[in-house]
Amino acid sequence: MKRTSLLFCIALLIVGCSTCQNKNTANNAAKAIDYAKTITANNLKENLYTYASDEFQGRKTGEPGQKKAVEFIKNHYITLGIPSPIAYGDYFQDIPASFFTSDITNGSENVLAYIKGSEKPNEVIIISAHLDHIGVSKNGDINNGADDDGSGTVAILEIAKAFKTAADKGYGPKRTILFLHVTGEEIGLYGSRYYTDVDPVFPLKNTIANLNIDMIGRVDPKHENQRNYLYLIGSDKLSKELHNISEAVNKEYFNMEFDYTYNDDNDPNRFYYRSDHYNFAKKNIPVIFYFNGTHADYHKPTDTPDKIQYDLLEMRTRLIFHTAWELANRDKRVKVD
């Protein structure tokens, strides 16, 4: 073959591969949009009105209401056909009462479910939220914790459904997704610490990122006139690449305002250290903490599901799904700086 002909063939091959790659990228993005649409305000509302009802008695760690909460979560995964990584039918990571230094007389449990990656199953993305709240006040008022963190809990359930729908149609994530509902957050981040320090079901060295959701259903006073926002904390502390991916996903699909006020190292609220992502960050795992800020009903009986802004909850949940989709399907795992 003549040299000119050979070069021409190579050029065609390169162009063809590039075109194919662009088509695959575009197709992947289109599929993400399709499956994100399965996350709806109505489903979020239906689940939250149950999860943050009086029946669950404020979900205090180790108490009967918290036990009802974990059964609700488990049954949701069983209905969806999403398995547990622990053992067949066993979704509970049991935590003995002795692990808690607080006044806990009964043990508690994290709830785990997962979708196995199709190409890189050993690399894991963890999406987390805490399942507990502060229980019943001394005067008998129930602290339902609709925003804290009922909103994060039902968001994960919808994200899991979206990934399962995709997997059932042949578009499962390339990397494994672990849906992790942790207990004991309100009394000291116990559930996430048990997972990271005692019993990481998937090796931490293979855990590429943690997306943690803690209160995403409301609007704080600062943003009353600009609802299209979300606080992000920690996204750039361990991986600039994770931060850039997060920004790119938002720009592509939502264009909401990302407020990094609480990401400041000198933030007096120290929110970076106050939710479950921090136990992953301590293990050098890149994290993003999604948060709507505090409001007048924070840790009060008035944090009820009727005050959740479900259109915002839907959009924020879809944002987190898109971010997880990108992390799960990109060629390389995010770099730790």
UniProtKB/TrEMBL annotation:
Signal sequence bounds: 1-20
Keywords, ordered alphabetically: Signal
One Pfam family named in its UniProt record: Peptidase_M28
InterPro entries for this protein: EF_Hand_1_Ca_BS, M28_fam, Peptidase_M28
Taxonomy, superkingdom: Bacteria
CDD domains, per the entry: M28_like_PA
Transmembrane feature ranges: none
Domain annotation Peptidase M28: ranges: 110-322
Protein's name according to its UniProt entry: M28 family metallopeptidase
